[in-house]
Write a structure and sequence with these properties.
Length: about 150
């Protein structure tokens, strides 16, 4: 786990998501308008998520958290703060119920520690053993609450 902070965007896997978003914006956005559902589909097709929720992997979990962090960052700031590669290139970032539900399912499965078929969930094991467990878990709870709020508005 290459991480320098407790947020998914502060990790190697999170930077993979940022790079993916940068490429997505350059190749798929319509005049700076992006949709979370299109990003989710493109990320699924590129191996950032499993075929099913039962296909659990540290990388998939971190990607779901990172994408949620990006979406919430845009909602809160109207831009991708401190991410020069994508900052200023998006004029709107919208989400539909399906994309939000997809991310919420990943986040709640992580929070609820839904285990892998043969073991505990790797992301939980790694963070529980770190000094940043409380901050990491609080960030996860924050993201869940924000996605739930978006689903009800």
């Amino acid at each position: 786990m290459g991480a320098w902070g407790y947020k998914a965007l502060e990790s190697d896997e999170g930077l993979d998501v940022v790079d993916f978003l940068k490429d997505f914006i350059q190749n798929h956005s319509n005049a700076g308008h992006i949709q979370l559902s299109e990003i989710v589909v493109a990320m699924k097709n590129s191996g950032f998520f499993g075929e099913t929720y039962e296909e659990i992997d540290f990388f998939y979990d971190t990607c779901a958290i990172a994408l949620t962090e990006l979406y919430i960052m845009y909602l809160d700031n109207g831009e991708f703060t401190n991410l020069e590669s994508v900052s200023g290139k998006v004029s709107s970032f919208t989400a539909d119920e399906g994309a939000l539900t997809f991310l919420l399912r990943y986040l709640t499965d992580i929070r609820d520690e839904v285990p892998e078929a043969d073991d505990t969930r790797e992301i939980i094991d790694l963070w529980r053993d770190s000094e940043s467990w409380a901050e990491w878990k609080a960030n996860l709870e924050f993201l869940i609450a924000r996605v739930e709020k978006e689903l009800t508005t």
